[in-house]
Amino acid sequence: MEETSNCCIIRYVVTGAINHTHVPNLCKNDENNDQLDDHEVGFEEEEVSGHKLTETDVYAAVELALDSVIKIFTVASSPNYFLPWQNKLQRETMGSGFVISGKKILTNAHVVADHTFVLVRKHGCPTKYRAEVLAVGHECDLAVLVVENEEFWQGVNHLELGDIPFLQEAVAVVGYPQGGDNISVTKGVVSRVEPTQYVHGATQLLAIQIDAAINPGNSGGPAIMGDKVAGVAFQNLSGAENIGYIIPVPVIKHFIAGIEERGKYVGFCSLGLSCQAMENQQLREHFGMDTGMTGVLVSKINPISEAHKILKIDDVILAFDGVAIANDGTVITTMVVPFRNRERITFDHLVSMKKPNEKAELKVLRDGKECNFLINVHPLQPLVPVHQFDKLPSYYIFAGLLFIPLSQPYLHEYGEEWYNASPRRLCERALREQPKKAGEQLVILSQVLMDDINAGYERLAELQVKKVNGVEIDNLKHLCQLVEECKEKNLRIDLDDDRVIVLDYHKAKLATSRILKRHRIPSAVSSDLIESEEEENVATSQN
């Protein structure tokens, strides 16, 4: 049992865009969901496990949603990670959203990911209005849009957020799925509530499974229960019929609260631990657990987490914030949400719902003795980013050598079977290695832009960069500084597999301009590295 995971085990499908949206990880879009669901509005009332979902209920949801649900038109352009100084061809996608309090529109992050232009349209209105993305949380697949034109807000009502529904409780999903231009409503019931892999952000967060179809274009639309929103539609299960997922209200409120308190999306907290279940009696006895004691074994600790300073490998976590943890790593939901009926969820959910820098109380068994610790929790960034939406990749070119920080989107450029097609060593490091210090990046030589100066080095592409002139590099910015500030006649770059690149520094400097011009590359350095250097210079001058 791990608190975070970079790989999808089950194949889910992001459903926000009718055309391709950028979907990271081991999942892909399903373009075969062209038919509308059989549960559309207008069919006879249906009995669902004792809960009757009538036409009256569905039409009430329609009336409630007509003045609230919005169709979103997005023009997006994703970066080309093999040629990081340019974007790919732009694409047009469509999704759904709905109005919340404060004159804001809530939708999915994948609906507006890598956006360059966003328009919104109300039901029954022929006019499209320009919208801006106020905040976006790719981990939880949520985004907030704003529209400055006051005309748009005339006759618009906002929807209220409700609670987590019971199992088998009826919901109506409202949105603009493919197959038509008008608003659509599908009805179904809640099948289960548990932490689920969010495809877009490759994060494990609480989600609600429903038996209503969520097709491309539906994403961002509300799932209405009674007169309130029970969640936001966002993905379905590939290869299965009528299995969709909605983002529950606790995750939505956590996202919105972070924006209201800090003015921007802040992320979801993590302890930075990997834990092992303790379901084997011999394992429990070995670590001194008495009869009746339950918990999980700490097997790995992220070096940049607060927990690294307090916890130790082989500690047994017995409870989190006073909630006992079972031997399989779960907690009973009646301890978290009073109305739940003996359902269990992993204790990671309790961690993810904490505010950044909020203290968490852990009861720990260490060397046979019970201890209590207070740990500040905060969002943690992996060594290799899982996603990098809404910004251009970082890069640095010297003498035709293209250096970049490794990211999963770079590996995804190898195609749908990237896990098998990309360089094996880089793939394994991307999925398993943890940072040893804050700000660390895994920098690689992505490719060699051929020239006389670098002839013979082209076979060294896709290797990790270790040192520059004997100095271990921390990240791409550090590499750039070491190269630019080189005082030696020769520049030496040490790579993985004990490979070495040596360049005459003065000749390499001159060759860089020649190579950039030949390949029509506007700059040898990505804009984020230039901006970072300028900010440092300003700070230095002020001091």
UniProtKB/TrEMBL annotation:
Q: Name one GO biological process term.
A: proteolysis
| Record organism | Chenopodium quinoa (Quinoa)
Q: Read off the SUPFAM superfamilies from this record.
A: PDZ domain-like, Trypsin-like serine proteases
User: Which part of the chain is the Protease Do-like PDZ domain?
Assistant: 384-528
Instruction: Write out the GO MF terms.
Output: serine-type endopeptidase activity
Q: Which keywords does this chain's UniProt record carry? A: Hydrolase, Protease, Serine protease
Sorted alphabetically, which Pfam families does this protein's record hold?
A: PDZ_3, Trypsin_2
Name of the protein: Protease Do-like PDZ domain-containing protein
Which PANTHER family did the record assign? PROTEASE DO-LIKE 10, MITOCHONDRIAL-RELATED, PTHR45980
Similarity section: Belongs to the peptidase S1C family.
